[in-house]
Amino acid sequence: MSRNTLSVGILVLLTAALGCGREEPWNVLLVTFDTTRADRLACYGNERIRTPTLDALAAEGFLFENAYAAAPITLPSHTTILTGEYPPTHGVRDNGLFVVSPDAVTLAERLSAEGYRTAAAIGAFPLVSKFGLDQGFDHYDDRLDRPYEDFRGRKVSNKVPGLFFDERRAQRVNEAVYPWLEQGGPDSFFLWLHYYDPHQPHAAPAPYDELYPDDPYAAEIAYSDESLGTLIEHLKKIGEWDRTLVVFTADHGEGAGDHREATHSYLVYNSTIRVPLILRIPGLEGGSRIEQAVGHVDIVPTILDLIGLPVPDGLAGRSLAPLTRSGPQRREPPYYAETLSPRLAHGWGEQRALFREGWKYIHGPRSELYHLPSDPAELSDRIDDEPKLAGELEAELAQWLTEHSAPEGSVAQAPDADTRRRLEALGYLQGSMADTVQIEEVLSREGIAPQDRVQRVNEISRVKTLLQKGQPLPARLLTAKLIEEDSESPYYLELHARAQMGLGELDEALETVERILETAGASPGTPEILSQIGWSEFREGNIAAARELMQRAMDLEPSATGLFLVSAVEKELGDADRELQALEKAVEIDDSHGPSLVGLAVRLAQAGESERAGTLFESAVATNPYYAKGYFNLGAFLLNEGRPVEAIERFRRARELDEGYLAAYSAEAMTLQRLDRGDDARALLAALEEQAPGSPAAAALREQLAEGSLR
Questions:
Q1: What angle do the packed helices 490-502 and 526-539 form, to 10 degrees?
Q2: What gap in Å lies between CA 525 and CA 424, rounded to an integer?
Q3: What is the rounded distance in angstroms from the CA atom of residue 639 to the CA atom of residue 625?
Q4: In the chain, which segments carry CATH 3.40.720.10?
Q5: Which bin fits 471, alpha (ψ -120 to 50), beta or left (φ > 0)?
Q6: How many helices (H) and strands (E) does the chain have?
Q7: Beta strands 27-33; 244-250: pairing state
Q8: What is the pLDDT of residues 309-344, one digit of tens each?
Q9: Pairing of strands 27-33, 189-195
Q10: φ, ψ of residue 592 in degrees (nearest 5)
Q11: How far apart are CA 593 and CA 560, in angstroms?
């Protein structure tokens, strides 16, 4: 058989698979892992990790060896994935400082217009709906796991408040869409799932933390792979898998030490720009590996093409469907990548890159040139050896920017205080910025080369990781070094104060905060740190000092968390009116703050205001679906209202969310006993004794159940 005959035959098969004669259109499943390098997956050749779900997708589908993100940053990259446009066109250049324009057209909007049901569940703060990527989704679940209890000293999660973005595990992302999937309907669906787990901080659940004890990054990727497998099994269970087109990718990679970059956002080497990309096409036998360069901009046109919809003119990307056929391939187009974060976050220089026919030109304060086929790790800069080629690529990149930049340009907006705190917590934003910053779409060599400052970013990341792991002493040593380099940086001083608090050095931490107030007037994190110092004083019995510190914090900037802690101090001092006032103000500031909602509901229930109390309890769990204490207190309220069956459901959910919540075991067991379900109560006692053998809670429950059986 000739090559031409073979190609025509495969074309016929692909055309049939794409929908000629199909009774119903395909579903579309888009899955993005955050911060996942292609070379860390087994299907991309990594022998140190097991990723069976992705391996199976690659075996069924098409794996692209050389896929590139448009930016090594979550929000800009996902905006490209969902619009098919590059950052200079869609205008989103960094986390938190930009919002997707209502004029942008997302894949969800395109598919919704064609009758698709659309849903998304995201795993972390950079993608919450206020940044605009919810456009076109019927259901956009961005309810994250907020580490309330850690702030008060009880560790129930893998995060420390003020250091990392709020997030939720991949399995909870799945749980957020299961009810929506099961609703079904006559139409096909488009579902986007975002798993944030591979991003720092790395704290994979069992057994992955034990399977990869020396590689927590791999542990998080392996756990995410399992979670995707769970989602796929659910699609099979409800009968939707066979007609589901799957697109898997990552928003960007991770430096992991390459080019001295530990994390991402600041450089555009392939360690953070090269990403996995796998297509699984229903009814089409795959197992192929495609070497031609492709990009995130190609995802939208590819999906539209594969499901039989027209690809709009003007999109930056191309359909990759032809590459799934054998035979001669078309010449690959140039691809673009950028990071403006070094300039926007630190005032350094920026980087813009162009990929063309195996060459990669990086423009910035120190430009570089690499030949990727012979140097995939980008270790040999050829810019001095190939000055003519570098000049040609620079001119081509300048022309590319002219052709692909939106006429109105991009404008960075100074974030609100809450967003700014979150950005600073992850090291995305340091120093002051104007209310707006106009992005000029021109090649620039101004500023400090990010390559020369990335080590400082690494040190900041190391400090946060140490604090998250409960190692404040080495963290303090590193923050002292950072302060030597920049003695007036509020951010470095904040990290230093956190390390001091971790060591119990409250006086020293307070001195550091005073230093911030003297040099910067205040910083976004100062009120939070003052509140934390005040809470530590409170726990040591220094109530008056705690009250003073917390009041200072609230004078600087009231917050729901700070006011909740104020309410705890006022309760200890016996001032019920001021306690209630603090809780009311906290809920007014943030009507989704779980502890304040629960605290206020408890006070109202005690005062006999059951109707409003019930509403607040329900609101607490609706806005905080992973807040175990909210479910426990709602259960107690329902029990008191004479609704024991409903109470049992809430107690059960509380212990599911927090296996160490011993009071939830006891409350559920005693309620079961009241309903004459003694066997179930004793089974729960056995579970409690297994969870906490020899604990006072288990002993007390055993005694209570024994007494109850005698009545």
A1: 10
A2: 8
A3: 20
A4: 33-329
A5: beta
A6: 29, 17
A7: parallel
A8: 999 998 999 999 999 876 446 678 999 999 999 998
A9: parallel
A10: -120, 10
A11: 7
For 259, counting Cβ atoms within 10 Å of its Cβ (0-12 exposed, 13-18 middle, 19+ buried), the class is middle
Asked if residue 191 lies in contact with residue 30, where contact means CB atoms within 8 angstroms, the answer is yes
Which pLDDT score, from 0 to 100, does residue 150 have? 60
Element (H, E) at 192: strand 189-195
Contact partners, residue 128, CB within 8 Å, separation at least 6: 122, 142, 144
Backbone phi and psi for residue 388, each to the nearest 5 degrees, phi listed first: -65, -45
In the numeric block, which tokens belong to residue 629? Answer: 């204490």
Spatial distance between the Cα atoms of 118 and 99, rounded to a whole number of angstroms: 21
Structure tokens at 94: 């960094």
Across 167-181, 212-226, 415-429, 693-707, least confident range: 415-429
Closest by Cα among 552, 619, 563, 621 to 591:
619
- For 28, phi then psi, to 5°, come to -125, 125
Residue 305 structure tokens? 């093409």
Nearest 5°: CA angle at 10, between 8 and 14? 115
- CATH T-level assignment (fold) for domain 452-649: 1.25.40
Closest CA to 601 of 574, 640, 575: 640
Q: Identify the top-confidence range among 333-337, 453-457, 571-575.
A: 333-337
Q: Which of 235, 125, 131, 242 is nearest to 191 (CA)?
A: 235
Quick check: 434 pLDDT over 90? no
Query: How far is Cα 633 from Cα 687, in angstroms, rounded to an integer?
Result: 21
Neighbouring-strand partners of residue 117: 189
Predicted pLDDT at 685: 92
List, by residue range, all CATH 1.25.40.10 domains of the chain.
452-649
Q: What band does 441 get if pLDDT is binned at 50, 70 and 90?
A: very high
**Which three-class secondary structure state does DSSP give residue 153?**
coil
Strand order in the sheet with 368-371: 335-339, 351-356, 359-363, 368-371
- CATH number of the 33-329 domain: 3.40.720.10
Helical ranges in 469-559 per DSSP H? 472-485, 490-502, 506-520, 526-539, 543-556
**What are the backbone angles phi and psi of residue 670, rounded to the nearest 5°?**
-65, -35
Contacts of 543 (CB under 8 A, 6+ apart): 537, 569, 572, 573
* Mean per-residue pLDDT, 289-305: 97
Contact by Cβ (8 Å): 364, 352: yes
- Alpha-carbon span 566 to 583, nearest angstrom: 9
Distance CA 294, CA 299 (A): 9
Structure confidence by residue, pLDDT tens digits, 106-140: 999 999 999 999 999 999 999 999 999 999 999 99
Higher pLDDT, 422 or 409: 409
67-112 confidence digits (pLDDT tens) = 999 999 999 999 999 999 999 999 999 998 999 999 999 999 999 9
The amino acid occupying position 307 is I
What's the start-to-end Cα distance of the chain, in Å? 87
Q: What's the length of the chain?
A: 711
Q: In whole angstroms, give the CA distance from residue 668 to residue 701.
A: 11
d(CA 230, CA 53): 9
Phi, psi of 291 (to 5 degrees): -90, -20
- How many CB atoms lie under 10 A from the CB of residue 415? 20
Phi-psi region of 153 (alpha: psi -120 to 50; beta: other; left: phi over 0): left
Q: How many CB atoms lie within 10 A of CB 628?
A: 24
